[in-house]
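Help needed: design a sequence for this.
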C-alpha cells in the first residue's frame, strides 16, 4: 500500500469517527434538553381555550420556576391527581376573591385577556405560603373546590414555552 492510499484510508476512518462523534454529541444534547429543561405535554381538555385546545402539544420550561418566581398571568403545567394546565391568578400571600366571575387580587380587579365569562364566586381568602391560585381560562363550568385551585410550588411542572403541535399553530409563550 502506498503512502497516499494509507493516508486516504486513515482520512476516511477519521472522517467516519468525526461524524459519529457529532451525531452522538447532538443526541446527548437533545436528551439533556428534553430531560432537564423542557417537557412536552399534550393538552387533555378544553380548560385553557381559547389559548390552548385539546390535542395541542406544548413544551413546558421546567427550569423557569427555579430561575424566577412564577408570575401572575403565566400558564403553568402542574400535577395534582393528573397533569393539568392553568394560569396563575394569585401569588403566595395575596388576598384573592372571585365575585360575579371576576378575579380580584387585594381588592383590585385582575385584568385577564383569555378568561371566559363565568358566574364563579369565592369569598376573599389569603393564598397560603408556597402556593399559587391557578385558574383555567375556560370557566364556563361549575367552580371546583377552592382547594383544587390552590397549587403548591412543588406540584408545578413548568411554564408554557412553545406550542409544537399542531404544526402551523406555533405560539411562543416565553416573554
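Sure. Designed sequence:
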Amino acid at each position: 500500500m502506498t503512502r497516499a492510499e494509507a493516508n486516504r484510508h486513515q482520512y476516511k476512518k477519521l472522517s467516519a469517527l468525526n461524524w459519529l462523534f457529532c451525531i452522538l454529541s447532538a443526541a446527548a444534547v437533545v436528551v439533556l434538553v428534553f430531560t432537564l429543561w423542557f417537557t412536552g405535554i399534550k393538552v387533555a381538555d378544553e380548560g385553557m381555550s381559547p389559548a390552548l385546545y385539546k390535542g395541542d402539544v406544548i413544551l413546558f420550561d421546567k427550569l423557569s420556576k427555579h430561575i424566577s418566581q412564577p408570575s401572575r398571568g403565566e400558564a403553568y403545567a402542574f400535577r395534582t391527581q393528573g397533569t393539568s394546565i392553568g394560569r396563575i391568578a394569585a401569588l403566595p400571600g395575596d388576598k384573592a376573591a372571585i365575585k360575579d366571575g371576576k378575579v380580584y387580587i387585594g381588592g383590585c380587579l385582575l385584568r385577564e385577556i383569555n378568561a371566559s365569562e363565568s358566574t364563579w364566586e369565592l369569598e376573599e381568602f389569603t393564598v397560603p405560603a408556597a402556593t399559587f391560585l391557578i385558574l383555567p381560562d375556560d370557566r364556563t363550568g361549575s367552580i371546583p373546590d377552592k382547594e383544587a385551585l390552590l397549587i403548591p410550588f412543588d406540584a408545578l411542572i413548568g411554564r408554557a414555552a412553545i406550542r409544537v403541535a399542531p404544526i402551523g399553530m406555533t405560539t411562543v409563550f416565553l416573554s
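The helical segments are 3-37, 64-67, 146-149.
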